[in-house]
Amino acid sequence: VNDRNPDNLYYDKEEEQRLMDRFQFNKYLSDRTPINRPMRDFRHTTCLQRQYPDDMPAASVIMVFYNEAASVVLRTVHSVLNKSPPHLIHEILLYDDNSDLEEVVEGSWFTKHVRTLPKVRLERSKHGRGGLIKAKTYAGKLAKGKILVYLDAHCECNDGWLEPLIYPIYRNRTACTTPNIDSISWQRLEIHAPEVVEVTGGLNWILNMLWSPLSAEEQARRAKDPYPITADIRTPTMAGGLFAIDRQWFMELGMYDDGQDIWGGENIDLSFRVWLCGGTQWLCPCSKVAHVFRPKHPYSFGGGHDQNFKVVMKNYKRNALVWLDGPHLDFFYKWKPQAIDVDAGDVSDRLKLKEKLQCRSFDYFLETVWPLPAERDCVATGMIKSLDNQCLDNAGGSDTHGQHLQIWGCHNLGNNQFWMYRKDRRIMGLLYVYDVDGLIPGSNVILVWIDHKSDRQFFDYNPKTQQLIHRKSGLCVDRHASSRDVIIDSCDPYRTNQKWTFQYTYADRPI
Questions:
Q1: Is residue 93 within 8 Å of residue 63, measured between CB atoms?
Q2: Contact present, 504 and 380 (Cβ < 8 Å)
Q3: What pLDDT, on the 0 to 100 scale, is given for residue 8?
Q4: pLDDT of residue 4
Q5: Kind of pairing, strands 280-292 and 233-234?
Q6: What letter does residue 368 receive in the DSSP assignment?
Q7: I need a surface site. Which of 40, 235, 291, 444 has the fewest CB within 10 A?
């Protein structure tokens, strides 16, 4: 029951759904849940054994919000106050990006409540609505703490969340840290928080962050820690809104790209800047922050779905123009041809900043930070077409390990129909590699996570017969007679359903 409305126990299903549609999470339930609700300690027991110095610097905890439900913002604020050592909180800075929602505007009960809280400062935008990315920069410039900790305004912090974020920065000012982000159900507000996290932030060629299992090298490095299971994890990319960084170094790095709009891609740009311009980035398993993951944005990017797509695509293209030097930019366009005609604006200032900071090339990122297979590692790329202009497809972009490879009409839009046929004869997409679920005729070609390796993932190509031959079974890639599934079957050089061509081949790398 909410602290401000303890007697309102009546359940109105229609009102719950109306608010769900408006806010994209259960605001009805949130308004009836204590802003000081208790949370059990979800950390692994080894986190309790870790000790931190007494002289670590204090942080400005920054939360940017726009038309956010007052109850969920306050729950975030109170969790920070309740779960943080007071000497490590310089301030909690709430930055309102020009909200017009009645319950959070000036004079509201929300405003009055906030101004009773210790160390909490509420600032309103003087720039109109800037969007999340620009608002974070404005807020960062107003903050006064030595460390900046950015949180989304719909989070709840767990016990001991702050110390693990600050400690790596205390040791090295060019470290950037991110918490272990747990989940708050957008429907029931239940917290799902596994004790152990053993994943890292990876990257694909459309510049999306993705979660990936730890490499053998990273596992070996963590094994040297006194408590390996909760040792910090080297992470090539961050998830987005939740991170900590030295304030002065963040300013030296150029903060956020002010040419990017609203939301999308800013986490990738910052990750590139950290790694390529002298820093490191870490995921801290003992820092646990739960976050409401909504099914879609509750606010507009200035128009409908098409406008939202254009904004995000502009941001991603800016990242590509700034960071993908050499042949890598062309490869990005092959993966994401929709980006070619997008107006990304002028990136000359970001390129000058990159030069000023003496940032490394993108090859360094590929070779040292995240071993993403590049075009140079492939003998063919792009769509894999049948004779009747159908293409091998990852079943519409679903993300299930073991899903069936399918065949659909070719769309020339990259993504779910773009494949990398590597020199080692594995065929890879954004997240998956080809495999099979059996070694007999009629077995399905399936898609498994890239890091899930087996001896059934190799396919040889015969350019004369245009057949893809599964090496372990000796069977050929074929199409199912009565569905869109792709199978392996007995090889027949005259069978048209077994003939495939690649969109891009390379004269210096025979297929």
A1: yes
A2: yes
A3: 52
A4: 45
A5: antiparallel
A6: I
A7: 40
Instruction: Give start and end residues of each alpha helix (H) in 173-285.
Output: 216-222, 247-252, 266-276
Decide: 156 and 190 in contact? Cβ < 8 Å. no
Q: What is the pLDDT of residue 306?
A: 56
Residue 396: strand, helix, or coil: helix
User: What is the C-alpha to C-alpha distance for residues 458 and 445, in angstroms, rounded to an integer?
Assistant: 12
The mean pLDDT value for 41-57 works out to 96
Is the model's pLDDT at 147 over the cut of 60?
Answer: yes
Spatial separation of the C-alpha atoms in residues 134 and 146, rounded to whole Å: 21
Percent of the chain with pLDDT over 90: 81
Residue matched to tokens 């497809």: 393
Give CA–CA dist 383/243, Å, rounded.
Answer: 37
Mean pLDDT, residues 128-144 taken together: 93
Per DSSP, the three-state class of 420 is strand
What pLDDT score was predicted for residue 240? 78
Q: Would you state the torsion angle of the CA atoms of residues 84, 86, 89, 94, taken in this order, to the nearest 10 degrees? A: 80
Residue in the structure block whose two tokens are 């300690």: 41
Tell me what the mean pLDDT of segment 178-200 comes to: 93
Q: How far apart are CA 22 and CA 35, in angstroms?
A: 21
Mean pLDDT of 264-291: 96
Q: Dmax over Cα atoms in the chain, in whole Å?
A: 80
Confidence of residue 307 (pLDDT cuts 50, 70, 90): low
Report whether 314 contacts 209 (CB < 8 A): no
Task: Name every residue whose Cβ is closer than 8 Å to that of residue 309 and which is 6 or more positions away in sequence.
Answer: none
Question: What's the mean pLDDT in 259-281?
Answer: 92
Going from the C-alpha of 478 to that of each of 189, 209, 229, 411, 447, the distances in angstroms are 46, 33, 44, 20, 15
Tens digits of residue pLDDT in 417-458: 999 999 999 999 988 899 999 999 999 999 998 878 899 999
DSSP 3-state of 171: helix
Q: What is the reported pLDDT for 435?
A: 97
For residue 441, give the nearest of 495, 493, 491, 391 by alpha carbon: 491
43's tokens: 């950390």
d(CA 100, CA 107): 12
Residues 478, 495: contact at Cβ < 8 Å?
A: yes
Please, which residues have CB within 8 angstroms of residue 187's CB and are 6 or more apart in sequence?
A: 20, 25, 26
SS3 of 107-168? CCHHHHHHCCCCCEEEEECCCCCCCHHHHHHHHHHHCCCCEEEEEECCEEECCCCHHHHHHH
Question: Is 291:154 a contact under the CB 8 Å cutoff?
Answer: yes
Give the contacts of 341 (CB within 8 A, at least 6 positions apart).
none
Q: Pick the closest to residue 409 from 438, 431, 433, 385 (CA basis).
A: 385
Round the average pLDDT of the chain to a whole number and report it: 92
Per mean pLDDT, which range of 224-228, 275-279, 332-336, 397-401 is the poorest?
397-401
Under a CB-based contact definition with an 8 Å cutoff, are residues 177 and 168 in contact? Answer: yes
